[in-house]
Structure formats: C-alpha cells, structure tokens
Write a structure and sequence with these properties.
By secondary structure, the protein is an alpha+beta fold. The chain has 7 helices and 14 strands. Strand 4, helix 2 and strand 5 form a beta-alpha-beta unit.
Length: 280
C-alpha cells in the first residue's frame, strides 16, 4: 500500500462510485440479470460477466448486521460467490468491521465465509490528471480506430472482446450495450481498433456520475505487445478531454496496469475495500 497515491478527494471518490454503479446499471433487466438498488445496490448475472457485485450500502447503524445478512440471503438465491465493494461513502462508517464480523460468524445461516485478504484492496485502482496524458504509443501506420454505432459493429466488438478475455461469450455485454444504444450523448461508447480490416483491440468509454472511465479494454494474445491496447485507451482518454473532463480513473487488470501507467495513470488508494464472500 505504501507505493500507492493516497486519495482524499471524497467528492471524486463518490463520482467514481456512481460511474461504477452506472456501468452495472446498464446490464439491469437483460435475461439472467438481477439488479437491485435499495439499502444495498447490487447486481448478479447468472450467465457470465459482469458477475456479482455489491457496490453501495446505506444501512441503519442499529440494524446493520441484520441488513448484511438480508443482503447475503437475497443475493444467495442466485449465486454462491459475492464480491462486496465497500466505498468510503457507504454507511455506517464501521460497515467494514461489521462485514468482517459477519464473515467470522458465517453470515445469515453459518454457510458464508470471507476468503482472501479481509479486507482486500479490490484490485488495481488508478488515477490520472488528463493534463498529464502521455503521448500516444507508436503503432503500425495501418492501425485505425472505429466507434461502434450499429449492431453489426457491436457484434465485431463482442467477438474481439471474447478473444481478448480468453473466456466467456460476452453475450451479456452485447445485449446490454445494444439496448443502451449508440447516440453521441449516450453514457457508454465502444471502440474497435483495426489493422487494415482485422480487429485487434476493443474498449468502452463510460461518461457518468461526474467522472469518465474506461472499461472492457481487450486485446487478443496474438496482437498484444504491439501498442494497440494502449493506443485505443489513449484515444478514449483524448475523447474524455474533448468532452470537458480533466481527470480519469480506471479499475485495471493485472495485465493492463503497466500499459495504463505508461499513459500517465498512477496506482491509487481510493479507500475502496473488497470483501469476497463464498458460500460453503
């Protein structure tokens, strides 16, 4: 943790949380998806990504344990694995301590356990001042980027994403993004990078909640280490600046974090913690 930028702009962290929630909200209502926004906000997709996440909670301090158990029981109707993301704005302030205590107790029925670090750091969070955006990576002169604006291009986006993620069919993404649409004023914008007519990388830009972020960057193994993932990410960062944003953040994979660091992202502790629940 000592090497991370310690972030204390809680207004921006709240905007990050709202962007994060909006990303999952796009999947609400597609077949096999359960999305709930009550005292706790969560999603569960029964057939592949984006999976199961709790991303917001606002529980009364006097009944917090009962609310934790009720949330686990409700989501547990659909899955045995829950990743509970605890943002600094979640309430009560000691919710993390109560989650850990309920994990030791086994949750509502004694069958739930917390695994991994308790709490975990929730992955590779990174921050960028867009005024410090590095130059675009050098790539083939035959490389070009296309914005997805119809169902056919979205299917191409899905296929390159499947190849890049090396697992799953990304049907949930196709259904959710097709329904969301392709207007210039949409919240989500999708891009494909081509070398000649060959798709080689893909990504999604999400403008929501007062912040701009990038999701779903995917490059198949055969096309990696040639700058294409960095190039499409750089183009989306430029689009953010064009739309008036001066900072960004990303929830990076282990594979992508070095690419993002080269573009100007800094590993950052936003105060977000993860509690990974598994039912025995």
């Amino acid at each position: 943790m000592s090497s991370l930028l310690r972030f204390t702009d809680w207004t921006k962290v709240d905007q990050i949380q709202e962007n994060f929630i909006t990303y999952f909200r796009i999947f609400a209502g597609i077949p096999g998806s359960h999305f709930v926004e009550k005292d706790a906000a969560w999603i569960c997709t029964s057939d592949g990504a984006p999976g199961t996440q709790v991303f917001k909670a606002n529980f009364p301090s006097t009944t917090v344990d009962a609310h934790i158990d009720a949330t686990l029981a409700e989501i547990g109707q659909y899955t045995k694995a829950i990743d509970w993301m605890l943002f600094p704005g979640c309430r009560p302030a000691n919710l993390g301590e109560r989650l850990a205590a309920r994990g030791r107790a086994g949750g509502p029925d004694g069958t739930w356990r917390l695994v991994g670090d308790v709490p975990g750091m929730a992955g590779n969070w990174m921050y960028m001042d867009l005024n410090n955006l590095s130059p675009a990576p050098t790539v083939s002169a035959r490389f070009r980027i296309v914005r997805v604006n119809n169902a056919s291009l979205l299917e191409a986006w899905r296929q390159i994403s499947v190849a890049g993620f090396e697992g799953g069919e990304c049907h949930n993404f196709y259904q959710a993004y097709l329904r969301h649409g392709f207007d210039q004023d949409a919240l989500a914008h999708h891009y494909i990078g081509y070398v000649d007519e060959q798709p080689v990388t893909s990504g999604t830009l999400l403008l929501a909640g007062g912040s701009a972020s990038i999701y779903n960057v995917s490059t198949p193994p055969v096309w990696r280490r040639q700058g294409y993932g960095g190039a499409i990410t750089h183009a989306m960062l430029q689009e953010m600046r064009h739309r008036g944003y001066n900072w960004s953040w990303i929830w990076a994979s282990d594979l992508g974090k070095n690419v993002y660091a080269q573009l100007g992202f800094t590993p950052t502790d936003f105060g977000i913690r993860e509690y990974q629940w598994r039912r025995q």
